[in-house]
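Consortium newsletter contribution from the modelling node. Members have asked for a concrete example of what our holo predictions look like. Here is one, prepared for the flavin-adenine dinucleotide complex that several groups have been discussing at recent meetings.
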Amino acid sequence: MENSADIAIVGAGIMGLAHAFAAATRGWRVVVFEREPRASRASVRNFGLIWPIGQPHGILHQLAQRSRAHWIQVLNAARLPYLSTGSMHVVYREDEADVAREFAELAPGLGYNCSWLKPDDAIERSAAVIPDRLIGALWSPLEVTVDPRLTIGIVPHYLNEKFNVEFRFGYAVRSIDMPVIEAGNERWRVDRAIVCTGEDFETLYPDIYAAAGLTRVKLQMLRTEPQPAGWQLGPALAAGLTLRFYPSFGVCRSLPRLKQRITEETPEYDRWGIHGLVSQTACGELTLGDSHEYGLTVDVFNREEIDHLMLNYIGTFLRAPIMRVAQRWYGVYAKHPDRPYLSFDAAPGVRIVTSPGGAGMTLSFGIAAETLERMES
Ligand SMILES: Cc1cc2nc3c(=O)[nH]c(=O)nc-3n(C[C@H](O)[C@H](O)[C@H](O)COP(=O)(O)OP(=O)(O)OC[C@H]3O[C@@H](n4cnc5c(N)ncnc54)[C@H](O)[C@@H]3O)c2cc1C
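And here is the predicted structure:
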């Protein structure tokens, strides 16, 4: 027997869920197919950071802010915990402080809401920051932390209960031949389809993916045991290495000097694409990372050297009661070398929306709103 819907979404990672939300709020009948019993790829393996400050000024920064607004709406409606604690980039070297100060000066004119903090003010915002030799911090109030494992698990229930979105977990989509979709042992007749299959380039539309120029990025991650009750990280923390990582800081004339010093002094951080980010989960653990290894073939074995470098670096700015590592894992996302994400028609009625790189949590709901607006017009 054939089922029917107005639109099918393939993939129940954050991109698929955001598109399901955007379609359902327009009154469309939505079905979501996820090949695994529960989504377990990049969308549950990340820091859970909604991080507008990392997006370059202009269109992408605006998209991140739009996405953030949808996130808050969904998190509140689904009664999911989140930390609206903002972010701090803490700096301990003069060349890092130059970049952070320069950005704080330029940023308001570029649409960011952030400012430079002196050491005492930074420590007042987060007791987790090591005070020795702290020069200051770039503070931004907008960043939000969600608990990705919890959120990606609960949002499907919310979408089902509130909007009647149908979910088929454990149903891999094998073929899309509009208007028919074959998934698991079911056939569906749909008007449109959106393919959000993350870093699977081989199953659906392999020729299109092969020509798209995408690659994979592997990130190693760590998580501490829960911190004592009542201890709070406060803002999500980043530090000097992160200033060379997010494209937003590319506007700073002082950045090349910082990058050069890091390359000369600590080439191992460049080699493994390491910077230091810290976020806190709903249960109080700290999520720590990350590293970046590029290439279609992912090394399935983690490198202890990378974990060691990350922990050493994070230990230069973070003091938390419990630093014992409870979990280690890696995640993989799809990335285009030049474009922040890809969105294009693969066939009449079928749109692929993929590869938001390291910003999929940040941009997902904004991208999804744009996709649906384009479909409606
Ligand atoms: C370690 C790590 C840390 C990160 N930290 C952050 C962060 O803090 N903030 C941020 O903004 N971004 C972050 N990112 C990036 C972000 O996690 C990704 O951009 C985002 O999760 C990608 O979402 P997605 O839905 O496209 O992909 P995925 O999460 O990979 O989801 C794709 C889904 O499609 C399913 N699927 C594939 N093929 C089929 C098929 N044929 N049929 C049915 N289902 C299929 C898969 O099983 C999968 O569940 C991080 C990424 C990683 C790896």
